[in-house]
Amino acid sequence: MGDVSSPRLHCSILGSLEVRVAGRRAVIGAPKQRLLLAILLCHANAVIPSDQLIDSLWGETPPRTARKNLQVYMSALRKIVGDRISFQGWGYRISADREELDLLRFLELGRSGRAAVRSGDLATAAALLGDAVRMWRERPLEEFCHVRLVAAEVGRFTELFLSIYEDWVELEIELGRHVEALGSLDVVAARFPARERVAAARMTALSRCGRAAEALAHFEGLRRHLAAEMGIDPSPVIRQLYQAILRGDGPPPARLPGLAGAARPRPVRALANRLPRAVDFVGREAQVRRILDEPSPVTVITGALGAGKTALAVHVAHLLAPRYPDGAVVIPLRRHGVPRPAADVQREILEGVGLEITGVREDDVLASVWRSWLADRKVLLVLDDSPDESSVRMLLPGTTSSRVLVTSRSRLSGLESVARIDLDDLSTSECVEFLGRLIGCERVAADLPAVLRILRRCGPSPLVLRLLGARLAGLRHLPLDALAERLERTEDVLDEFVAGDVSLRMRFEESYAHPSWPHRAAFLALGTLDGPVFGHEELVAALDGTEGPGERVVESLLEAGVLSISQVETGAEVVAHSLSYAMSPLAHRFAAELGKDRNR
């Protein structure tokens, strides 16, 4: 087909994989190329790490030439889709908009339809949601269902489809189109027999068509299925619907314009605003504005330990809170460095708003209650210090009425359809302003050279500056140049950063010293190198064998937020040897200390 920089493209994944270029169907015959394109399209506009792609193509035993083969496959795909596929230093992404990928158009129609519901324009809402439902072509990407990266996304797409379908079919019934709705309800209810909203919609439509006996029979089938497969009873809402039809009262009207929702419990208390007190905040104007203006319901804020991710999230959350009248809350996803199970988080919040869930034992049932509770609310969630993608996915709302801010040291590259903010170090001027707020602008201005020496020694980390400022505020007699000299000569520099019950060393130990941390061996290897900036070849050689091949270990440390790319030429895919990498000077010092302790 020839090399084309930007061909007119349309890709479909809400069924079998199909690609059309300039209106003509493109033939992608090689199975691995088809799989690669399917993975990229599932995660459109997100970076997929190269090691994840290699695992998907070859499993646990990739060939020695796997990375080169991956580049060849990507080059072949570029001849079809053009320069939409790009290399980002640690992985690949495909750029697409809603006119080029059916999934994105489907999501846009769903968002627009639900916005029309909230505004009370039910006819427009039904039309938009109906257009979204008709885009579904049954069993997306079935040929790749054995691949984890695809299967997880297909599960998410299916859940989104069902949620939008339920909203649409309830609207159709309430707008008097119950006869027409039954055609699709018969099919969807048979394929998803445990979906209570689908069952309730079919019972309602049957009853309004004068087929009450069939509606009651459908309830009995649902009851038997839930008992046999999950060991639970139907929800109180659908039992009430059954009783109403049995009495001959007919089904009650849905709660429009908020959409009915067959199993959406109502809390006895509001979540309310539970945001913590905002702390001193300096800079990050571009990032703050971007988050405030971002249309995506999920924003992921990443950066190294101490980069100010939580401070930024809380600062923005206070600005966003008025838009979310049903409450705002920060949810720590780790306790003392240990990840919290998503089910524990869900149970804590749901019980906190007064829902009776003591009888819910299965995690999937609890997750369904969680999504149902969030579905018709406008809530702001801050998921803080997220350990991995799965912990975030379990807590994301199924609808776009709520907003989620996620903070993590890892890039969480596997998360799809999210906006991303990667926090770099503060600029020198921002560091000076921040320290001035903590200890006084006059004191800082009086000895700027000493401040710059401190920054060179310790790095421009907000956490480090906050701890340093808290100490200096109580040591007004200590000249800044004396502190700079002490920091430069001391061997135990980490012990200088303590303020009350907050210790930098303790934070490092929680993050980097735990024996189960998967990057511990590589982190220790970094401590043996002269740093904190490393050349590519030196780094690959030092890390080779610590967790796998050196190139893949570097990528995993980039993903984990331990390393960052210091400089990279445009077109980095072919100049990897010219890359240089950096880590926090104090984290590098801690890695060196850990290595010495282990060798004693």
Automatic annotation (TrEMBL):
<dbReference type="Pfam" id="PF03704">
    <property type="entry name" value="BTAD"/>
</dbReference>
<dbReference type="GO" id="GO:0003677">
    <property type="term" value="F:DNA binding"/>
</dbReference>
<dbReference type="InterPro" id="IPR036388">
    <property type="entry name" value="WH-like_DNA-bd_sf"/>
</dbReference>
<keyword id="KW-0805">Transcription regulation</keyword>
<comment type="similarity">
    <text>Belongs to the AfsR/DnrI/RedD regulatory family.</text>
</comment>
<dbReference type="InterPro" id="IPR051677">
    <property type="entry name" value="AfsR-DnrI-RedD_regulator"/>
</dbReference>
<keyword id="KW-0238">DNA-binding</keyword>
<dbReference type="InterPro" id="IPR027417">
    <property type="entry name" value="P-loop_NTPase"/>
</dbReference>
<dbReference type="InterPro" id="IPR005158">
    <property type="entry name" value="BTAD"/>
</dbReference>
<dbReference type="InterPro" id="IPR016032">
    <property type="entry name" value="Sig_transdc_resp-reg_C-effctor"/>
</dbReference>
<keyword id="KW-0804">Transcription</keyword>
<dbReference type="GO" id="GO:0000160">
    <property type="term" value="P:phosphorelay signal transduction system"/>
</dbReference>
<dbReference type="InterPro" id="IPR011990">
    <property type="entry name" value="TPR-like_helical_dom_sf"/>
</dbReference>
<dbReference type="InterPro" id="IPR001867">
    <property type="entry name" value="OmpR/PhoB-type_DNA-bd"/>
</dbReference>
<feature type="domain" description="OmpR/PhoB-type">
    <location>
        <begin position="1"/>
        <end position="96"/>
    </location>
</feature>
<feature type="DNA-binding region" description="OmpR/PhoB-type">
    <location>
        <begin position="1"/>
        <end position="96"/>
    </location>
</feature>
<dbReference type="Pfam" id="PF00486">
    <property type="entry name" value="Trans_reg_C"/>
</dbReference>
<dbReference type="Pfam" id="PF00931">
    <property type="entry name" value="NB-ARC"/>
</dbReference>
<dbReference type="InterPro" id="IPR002182">
    <property type="entry name" value="NB-ARC"/>
</dbReference>
<dbReference type="GO" id="GO:0006355">
    <property type="term" value="P:regulation of DNA-templated transcription"/>
</dbReference>
<protein>
    <recommendedName>
        <fullName>OmpR/PhoB-type domain-containing protein</fullName>
    </recommendedName>
</protein>
<dbReference type="GO" id="GO:0043531">
    <property type="term" value="F:ADP binding"/>
</dbReference>
